[in-house]
Amino acid sequence: MKFTTAQIVGLAAALSSTAAADLVKGFNYGSTDSSNQPITQSQYEDLFKTAEGLKGTAGFTSARLYTMIQAGTPNSPIEAIPAAIAQNTKLLLGLWASAGQDQFNQELTALKSAIDTYGSQLGDLLLGISVGSEDLYRDSIMGIQANAGIGAGPDVILSYIKQVKQLISGTALANTPITHVDTWTAWVNGSNADVVSSIDFVSVDLYPYFQNTMANSIDVAKNLFWDAIDQTQANAQGKDIWVTETGWPVSGPNENQAVASLANAKTYWDEVGCDIFTKMNTFWYTLQDASPVTPSPSFGVVGSQLSTTPLFDLTCPAGSSSSSSSSSSSAAATSSSSSADPSSSAAATSTEATTSSSDPASSSAAASTPSSSAAAAATASSAAVSADDVAKSSATSGPASTSEAAPATSSAAAAVSSAAPVSSEAPAAPSTTTEAAPATSAAESVAPVESTTAPVATGAAASVVASTLSVLGLAAFVSLL
Ligand SMILES: *[C@@H]1O[C@H](CO)[C@@H](O)[C@H](O)[C@H]1NC(C)=O
Fold first, then answer.
1. CA 147–ligand 1 middle distance (angstroms)
2. What is the number of domains present in the chain?
3. CA 154 to ligand 1 center in whole angstroms
4. Contact 436, 407 (CB under 8 A)
5. Where are the alpha helices (DSSP H) in 98-198?
6. Which InterPro entries does the annotation name (predicted)?
7. I need a surface site. Which of 58, 231, 416, 428 has the fewest CB within 10 A?
8. Which pLDDT score, from 0 to 100, does residue 226 have?
């Protein structure tokens, strides 16, 4: 079959616009608020409605979750699901995968229950299912050195992926794409290649703000972002890459040259967000992380009062998202150009990354730095079971997941390098973290049952710990560099 040039051009244009129109735009949602209270169905509905009606934007109709379990319950399906069905919000489900097989069984129980209860109503809304969040990072040399908390290695994640595929087989969710969220350092690590092979798309978390061992001012944030995407893409085995977390704090401590401010949050939204919203499936971090307590750093584009009026203007600059239909391939192109930009730290980073490619260990480290922060956020979030808990605890600090992560992050940051300021947010975080640590270990070593009993607490603790660890891990990694 032959095509004329005009046909090809037309086809390309059609695909391009279709792709842009079909791209996922959403936010991350933990299972608890910033005071560690479970988020209820009606609250999720309010959040989803707010995201969809956010002034200056359109199309934020998707949500990423960190756990299948409703906070405060052993294994009841998270109430974000009926809320999403009520609001027609698309979902990227998540199962927390770093608390051992027993706790993962609770995640599976909640998933099975959700399928039994909602069936195709749920299946029709699903963008995918993520088995885990930053588990590989936490279980890596970097994560361990950073005391990032309990993670899980590739064999465990592969086993869990298989379990999820078996569970959904023959159900209304049978065709749901499966993914795993991790830091880019994890994705460039050749030891994790089998995980890449086993998933349908690669999900990565990226936070230039946290890359505090590098030049990371808002001026080079875009370059850092694209460099990390490039490194991830080089190891993605040709699979699609989704950005599952990225964002810039509206308030909080400085991280090296990164300054948390409304102005910089807007710059990052304009230069990174508005660019990728037309090129890649994205879950921004985040809609709201400041209810009822404002975490430090705080990433929410909406303040402590839920409102469709954001803290800064989210209207994309002319020529960014709207004009970007040609940008589908931009991810690659952009990254290339950024790497080529000598002035950017991205270039430096990429060089390292490149170098490291030959040295898996080093490259991972480099790669992970960016992701770590993201991971931290993600991790925190993901703790889900804990995630929920995390979300709750984190809630203060950031996205559900993030919120939890934030506190952890602060600690991590403080420990690692400069981040000390962050701790301020964490009134809750410190205590949470402390408590969480014991809980987490106990949960893991002792028994999943505990988690069942006190899902929330354990989860939160785990999340916090994870977050902290992630952050630390990142910092540690950076120092190594
Ligand atoms: C690479 O991945 C493996 C398996 O996840 C992990 O054990 C190892 O620590 C990682 N290497 C680095 C340098 O992070």
1. 14
2. 1
3. 9
4. no
5. 100-123, 135-138, 141-145, 154-168, 184-187, 193-198
6. Beta-glucan_modifiers, GH, Glyco_hydro_17
7. 58
8. 98
Cα–Cα distances in angstroms (integers) from residue 431 to residues 144, 223, 426, 455, in the given order? 22, 36, 8, 17
Of 45, 134, 404, 425, the active-site residue reads 134
CA atoms within 13 A on the CB side of 9: 3
Q: Ligand 1 pocket, 356 CB below 6 A?
A: no
The residue whose C-alpha atom lies closest to atom 10 belonging to ligand 1 is 140
Taking the C-alpha atoms of residue 257 and residue 191, their distance in angstroms, rounded to an integer, is 33
Please identify which residue in the block is written with the tokens 């790669």: 367
In short, whether 146's Cβ falls inside 6 Å of ligand 1 is no
H/E element holding 262? helix 262-268
Confidence of residue 146 (pLDDT cuts 50, 70, 90): confident
> Cα separation of 65 and 378, whole Å?
10
The CATH number given to whatever domain includes residue 257 is 3.20.20.80
Ligand 1 centroid–CA 21 distance in Å is 37
Q: What is the pLDDT of residue 386?
A: 33
Average pLDDT of 160-181? 98
Single out the residue of 153, 313, 339 nearest to residue 233, CA to CA: 339
According to the per-residue pLDDT averaged within each range, which of 158-172, 314-328, 336-350 is highest? Answer: 158-172
Q: Enter the DSSP assignment of 444.
A: I
Q: Is the CB of 140 under 6 A from ligand 1?
A: yes
The residue range of the domain holding 351 is: 5-480
125 lines ligand 1 (CB under 6 A): no
Asked if residues 253 and 418 have their Cβ atoms less than 8 Å apart, the reply is: yes
Taking CA atoms only, the protein residue closest to ligand 1 atom 7 is 140
Nearest CA to ligand 1 atom 3: 191
404 catalytic per annotation = no
Residue at token pair 């991810």: 331
Q: Where are the beta strands (DSSP E) in 184-281?
A: 201-205, 241-245
Q: Give how far Cα 379 sits from Cα of 316, 399, 467, Å.
A: 29, 11, 5
Pocket test for ligand 1, best of 134, 136, 140 (most atoms within 8 A of CB): 140
Amino acid at 202: V
* pTM tops 0.85: no
DSSP character string of 400-443: HHHHHHHHHHHHHHHHHSS-GGGGGGTTHHHHHHHHHHHHHHII
Residue nearest (by alpha carbon) to ligand 1 atom 4: 191
Dig out the tokens for 404 from the structure.
Answer: 């939890």
**Helices and strands (H and E) in the chain: how many:** 20, 8
435 classed as catalytic: no
